[in-house]
Amino acid sequence: MTDTDADTDADTDSAATLERTIVVADDEPGYCESIKDLLEDEGYRVEIAADGQAALEILRRLPGQPCLLLLDLIMPILDGGDVYREVKADPRLAPIPVVIATSDPTRAPTGAMVMRKPVKLERLLEVVRRACSAT
Amino acid sequence: MSTSTAAPRGGEAQTSSVPTEPDSRAHLVEFYASDDHLVDRVARYLIAGLRAGELVLAVVTEARRDGLARRLAEAGLDAAAEIAAGRLVMLDAQAALDAFTAGGEPAPARFREHIGGALDRAALGAGGERTVRAYADMVDVLWQRGEPQLALRVESLWNELATERSFTLLCAYVMGNFYRASDRESSEATSEATTSAQAGVIPAERVAALEHELAQRTRLEAALRDALAREQHAREEAERAAHFNEVFAGMLGHDLRNPLGAIAMGASYIARASTSEKITRSAARILSSTERMSRMIEQLLDFSRTRVGSALSLQPVRLDLGELATRVKEELEAIHPEGSVALELEGSAVGAWDYERLLRVLSTVIGNAIAYGTAGHPVTVRIDGRAPDRVLVSVHNAGAMPADVLAVLFEPFRGTSRHRHTQGLGLGLFIAKQIVRAHDGAIEAASGEATGTTLRISLPRGGPSRPAAGSGAQ
Questions:
Q1: What's the pLDDT at B287?
Q2: Is 0.80 surpassed by the pTM of this model?
């Protein structure tokens, strides 16, 4: 399944599918594509956003909550810190687990879970499994 | 008598009396006519510092040393006791000048070593870096010796020290050594004079002497203003360059790390998905290289930040150094199966520190100890949390470090051939020192053939999570 398919196929937005949907917001296409391939192999559905604004639009478009938002900090248009604050300020989006993937954890918003870049694959899978089994 | 106050960022010198509570990093200049008056002023300045809990460094002539000790005693302070307690450091001005002067010129490196070292030792002797208040007679000695240019050069060297350390400095210049000399000659002449005609010559000489004195002082003040203006200009240029470098390095770091992250993630995916052992090995090599490059970029970014001065931002959290060291030990032992780390903990290692930064410090220090250790001898990490206000970490290995390496251990880019096999840029210990300093702590190294090498780190526990005195192990 591709993210384009996901936009048009109503069935893919069922509650069961959303439980295994992960939104990845990062402005590095190669990084996003590799994560998407990897997580799809693991049975997850992945939505990619190349900037913070696109990430918010995806989150607001989805009929429910994805099981995880994997968020880069430095992105064009709207950075990860602003996305994090908007998500936590929106009652509908606030329960979404957010993991900040950054090479400089000191810049992450206070209270956010942080995963240091470069992200280790095993660590990523561990975080995804934990977040997506808990929803 | 007047005092010119030059703020650390330069600017117009202003005239006022010596402030007992000067701005941090202020550089004060006092013009004086009477030695007693100066000693009184300096004593008040130093006493205010001692009473405020600051560390006081006085580089003074022998005569002034006694005068200051008397003034301190009158104020109820025992100079010998203050020295013994490490709150007051007194150096001999002439000995200091001899120590950093080479070929009749002040040598910047020697000045940094001797005077900067004295400032550092004063701070470290009190168990950490604290505000230092300094008074120095050296420029006055040079000025009285008729070497105003050398005096100004020493002023500049003090200003250079102030770019790396936080201290308040007071220097003094006698007003009119010519005038005083003339006065003495006049007095002798007076005592020998037997006619009013001879005595009548004296006022004219005095007028000439005063005119000379005024001209001298005007020249000196102009030279000081010029020196301050140059210093200010150089500082602004350096700040602009540092800011540009920081922005540039930040952007470069982000732009380099992003594709690196993509490479790492792609290689990880290939390694996981491939059934070919060769492809898996190849992907692992790509991963290893990306991790090495990532570490170097990280070091460059930290280096760039530290060059901007105190720009290392900290996010202190309640933290257990014992737990942090255990994590570092496990990670490093996994990477270096040939090395082992023995961890010893006494007391409470809890304090308020920046987790990521201290993780970097311990990884660097313990990682280096493993890399340069001796086969068969474990690296020993001792964490001493028995003191209520600080935690001491010592990392020891059996390897001895040559004196020339030890001397520059915390300098950046120590890219000697000895270090070429390492995976970094020779920035690790430099950055570690900046991080420790940003926590108001201290780091030092000692090495010998018989004793091996030990790096000692002293970290104040910080405010929010300062445990009660005598708290036990966590």
A1: 85
A2: no
Collect all residues of chain B within an 8 Å Cβ-Cβ radius of residue A103: 253-254, 257, 261, 294, 297-298
- Looking at the complex, does the CB of residue A74 fall below 8 Å from at least one CB of chain B? yes
**Could you tell me the two tokens for A84?**
């994090």
- For chain A, what is the total number of helices (H) and then of strands (E)? 6, 5
Q: What residue ranges in B96-177 does DSSP mark as E strands? A: 101-102, 105-106, 132-136, 167-174
Residues in chain A with pLDDT values less than 70 = 1-17, 134-135
CA A92 to chain B, closest CA, distance in angstroms equals 30
State whether residue B250 sits within 8 Å of chain A by CB.
Answer: no
Range of the domain at A89: 3-134
What is the per-residue pLDDT across B181-216, written as a single tens digit (0 to 9) for each?
444 444 443 334 333 333 333 345 566 676 777 788
pLDDT tens sequence across B229-268: 888 888 888 877 777 776 777 677 777 878 888 898 899 9
B406 CB neighbour count, 10 Å cutoff: 15
Query: Which chain A residues contact residue B354 at CB under 8 A?
Result: 106
DSSP state of B391: E
Give the B window 284-343 contacts with A, CB below 8 Å.
290-291, 294, 297-298, 301, 313-315
In chain A, the number of structural domains is 1
Q: How many CA atoms lie within 13 A of B351 on its CB side?
A: 29
Provide the percentage of residues in chain B whose pLDDT is more than 70: 77
Between CA B28 and CA B36, with CA B31 as vertex, the angle to 5 degrees is: 110
The number of residues in chain B equals: 474
How far apart CA B316 and CA B366 sit, in angstroms, is: 22
Contact A103 B257 (CB under 8 A): yes
pLDDT band at B303 (very low <50, low <70, confident <90, very high): confident
CB burial of residue B128 (10 Å; 0-12, 13-18, 19+): middle
Provide the pLDDT for residue B423: 54
Tokens standing for B425?
Answer: 């840029």
B268 reaches A (C-beta below 8 A): yes
CB contact under 8 A, A106 and B315: yes
A123 in contact with B at a CB cutoff of 8 Å?
no
Question: Nearest CB to B356: which of A34, A35, A105?
Answer: A105
Best probe of the A interface among B258, B295, B304, B434, by most A CBs < 10 A, is B258
Q: What is the CATH number of the domain that holds A123?
A: 3.40.50.2300
Say whether B259 and A41 touch across the interface (CB within 8 A): no
